[in-house]
Design goal:
The chain is mainly β. The protein is built from three helices and 19 strands. A hairpin with a 2-residue loop joins strand 9 and strand 10. The two termini are 17 Å apart.
């Protein structure tokens, strides 16, 4: 009998490119998990900012409360800023994530000031309202799905054995947080997820649609905000296809509901 495939970890990243949160259960929505990348920091031109260029963003940690997010710098956890879920200010006509432009709402200027001070540059926090529809690339969408402020797809799935395989090739192992997955499963062989199509987690259906191309963000240590060559250098030696280095699979949700750590993952 093959190993059982079990959901080991679930992660939500409420503010794009800031610290992630491990949760015991998550609400599956079309755009991604509830709260996942529904907020984003932008520069003065409306462009998203990320750890690719500003690795110190990793040092800002996020917690989900009953009615708000809390954010703090890892060096000073007592100095929190609270961002109410319901807080929405002025609409701005366009913010940019890669090739996509979309409307968003500013949150408030006091929160902008806190983030600007924390990062040492002028930024603004925006929220994606329900009225904004940022469509998944039609080559990969099943039913015209929309996506949050994530790079392009609602969910990222990685097998723990895939990370084990990579770490066996590295001088210094890296944790899974380098790859910012939403769903991590245990069991099976390394990179088993590469060949999957439709899957079921608990009672909910998902479709694996394409491999995830990795970038320099994987080289940012999430505890120190520093960059190095690994693990991208080693990944490129055996996970390259054309100009892309692949690790993990992008997924869209077929069903809506709750999935939990400990749920079984089944191939359909």
């Amino acid at each position: 009998m093959p190993d059982s495939l079990i959901i080991q970890d679930l992660y939500i990243y409420p503010i794009k490119s800031l610290g992630g949160i491990r949760v015991s259960e998550a609400k599956v929505e079309e755009r991604g998990f509830e709260y996942d990348r529904r907020w984003m920091l932008i520069d003065e031109n409306g462009q998203f900012i990320s750890q690719r260029t500003f690795p110190n963003m990793a040092l800002l940690r996020v917690e989900i409360g009953t009615d708000s997010l809390s954010v703090y710098h890892i060096s000073n956890p007592s100095e929190l800023i609270h961002i109410p879920f319901a807080e929405e200010g002025e609409e701005i006509s366009s913010v940019t994530v890669w090739d996509d432009d979309m409307p968003a709402r500013l949150v408030n200027s006091q929160i902008d000031e806190w983030f600007s001070n924390a990062l040492g540059m002028k930024v603004r926090l925006v929220k994606m309202p329900l009225s904004t529809e940022r469509k998944v690339d039609s080559k990969y969408a099943l039913n015209g799905e929309s996506v949050s402020f994530a790079d392009g797809m609602p969910y990222l799935l990685i097998g723990q054995e895939s990370l084990v395989d990579l770490n066996e090739k590295l001088e210094v192992p890296v944790p899974m947080n380098r790859f910012r997955p939403n769903i991590v499963f245990s069991g099976g062989k390394a990179f088993a997820e590469d060949s999957w199509g439709k899957i079921q987690i608990g009672e909910l259906g998902f479709q694996v649609v394409k491999p995830c191309a990795r970038c320099v963000m994987t080289t940012v240590d999430q505890d120190t905000g520093t960059k190095a060559a690994e693990p991208l250098k080693t990944l490129a030696t055996y996970r390259r296809e054309g100009k892309k280095v692949l690790f993990g699979q992008n997924v869209v949700a077929i069903s809506r509901g709750i999935i939990k750590v400990g749920d079984e993952l089944k191939l359909q």
